[in-house]
């Protein structure tokens, strides 16, 4: 009896287990898993169902498209704002620089005007001599770069260029400078050397007595010619006349082109065995350029708003002192004398 009862009780327990497993088997929805009351789902099941609904593939693609459109619109707006910001910044920067440059230009012009009033030689060599006697040293050789102006400007054209060069000659003679080099890029002074000689003679006659005009020589290295004020004599070679000043007229042809021609000539001589390669030295090049162009100036004046050498012979400015006045575009005595003052105060160190 006891065994039968045990068997019955075991069969009841087996039936109850089967019913439980059938209710919680794989056919039951996960929405009702671990939930005794199917009509009342739990919070965890609601959360799982909402997450599944939110992250379905079709809805996710649509959301991504909307987000990408919004991001593109935001980036476009930010790009426009950035462009406007930098444009406004650049406009303010240029406006500030323009105001500063205009103020600087006005100050420089006023300063130059005051200096022109303070330093006025009035065609008097004695006044120039007094200004020069205050200086500790003077350049033995002076050079100046001149620019031709348009015909419509005051002091423009070739006549204006000749007048500027004549002024420099008169100031140099009064200051006691023996060598003057005048450089203009296109060589107008060379082409009009006779008119320039007459202009210099006329200018010196204003500074000195017409019957006692200092003698001068105008030298054109490119043509190997020398012109004098006392006569129309023109000859090749070195002058033996004693003159107050020697004026050399240079152009861009006397710069790099002369060095190229000299190099080509030396190369041809070496090719034809007329010159040894060992004979080509720095000393030989210096001596040849000295004969072709002239000596190196101690001071170079530029009468322009900013320094522009304009092809001035580069071999001849290795130890040259430069001077120019910012925002100046006229050949004036104030720039001339201030350049001499700057040179007298400078110290030139020559290496070994």
Automatic annotation (TrEMBL):
Its main location: endoplasmic reticulum. It comes from the Eukaryota. It is found in: Endoplasmic reticulum membrane. Pathway: Protein modification; protein glycosylation. One of its GO terms (molecular function) is ditrans,polycis-polyprenyl diphosphate synthase [(2E,6E)-farnesyl diphosphate specific] activity. Keywords: Endoplasmic reticulum, Magnesium, Membrane, Transferase, Transmembrane, Transmembrane helix. It catalyses: n isopentenyl diphosphate + (2E,6E)-farnesyl diphosphate = a di-trans,poly-cis-polyprenyl diphosphate + n diphosphate. One of its GO terms (cellular component) is endoplasmic reticulum membrane. Its EC number is 2.5.1.87. Its cofactor is Mg(2+). Residues 1-27 are annotated as: Disordered. Coiled coil: none annotated. The chain crosses the membrane at residues 84-103. SUPFAM superfamilies: Undecaprenyl diphosphate synthase. Belongs to the UPP synthase family. This is ditrans,polycis-polyprenyl diphosphate synthase [(2E,6E)-farnesyldiphosphate specific]. It comes from Lachancea mirantina.
